[in-house]
Amino acid sequence: MTDLEMLASLPASGDPGMVHNDWEAAEKSLRVTFPSSFMRFLDVFGGAKFDDFLRVYRVGADNENVDLVAKTLKARHTMEVTRPHIQELLSSRGLQVVDLISWGGTDNADMCFLLPHADPKKWAVLTVIGRGQEYDLFEGGPESYLLQVMRRDFVSDVFPEDFPDDFPGYERHPDI
Q: Averaged over 36-55, what is the pLDDT?
């Protein structure tokens, strides 16, 4: 069973069905080619909210607060202006702030990013605290990261101690 399938097997509520994402528009706007594994992740979990705390964005959402492109552009500006230590981390990986892809965020303003790599299997997840200097770097895709966080196999320095709860799950909102 893949990490995506294991994540999808967590208890879920909300609307069933696949999520519509406008991949062509997103890739053009953000000047990136997404790995197929990331597209599958958002096609399943776009709009979902894990343990009523961490929201996964969707490409083409009417609400800019959950739209991957809008959130990415805003978060890039935030990282450029307020997070020199993140710029240093990116530079050490041959990246710039303009390369960040914001795929999710929390009610505490924490931000979840994809870090691109020439090899689609080597994309990483960077999670940055909303207010402060803490961050997590996870070598792998968002489905693996989120699965490990939800199982408490990966303990985040960013998220509060009570996330996830003892019985993690998610609520689906594919049309958000």
A: 95
